[in-house]
Write a structure and sequence with these properties.
Number of domains: 1
Distance between the termini: 15 Å
Order of helices and strands: HHHHHHH
Length: about 120
């Protein structure tokens, strides 16, 4: 699997995810610790950090939110929460390195920085 990230497409997906969160969880940005944000960690990614308060369960994480929304991993990809290959099964299609590269895009979105990082 390719580990490059199309930054323009990823930015659009992150904005789509942020717009979804704006409608689904008011004030979500205040719950994200950008200093510990790790998009490859189910407890430190955007949804993982929101999960305990959103789900009302301190042990909740990314998977619990995805399940409660009835989302597939592809839907999570379309919202900028992971990078996966639409044609692959979840375990085979998850791109760990490209997903890690989503973090600066989310930080820029959360902080309202119009100078979103670019690059691979």
């Amino acid at each position: 699997m390719e580990t490059t990230l199309d930054v323009t497409a990823a930015q659009a997906r992150v904005r789509h995810g942020a717009a979804f969160l704006d409608g689904a969880y008011l004030g979500w940005r205040e719950h994200i610790d950008v200093n510990t944000l790790d998009m490859t960690d189910s407890r430190r990614c955007v949804l993982g950090q929101l999960a305990p308060a959103w789900m009302g369960d301190e042990s909740a994480g990314y998977g619990d939110v995805i399940e409660s929304l009835g989302w597939s991993e592809w839907t999570a990809h379309e919202h900028g929460f992971i990078v996966t290959d639409e044609s692959a099964e979840w375990d085979d299609g998850y791109d760990h390195l490209a997903t890690a590269r989503l973090a600066p895009l989310w930080v820029s979105e959360i902080m309202g920085d119009s100078n979103t990082p670019t690059g691979p």
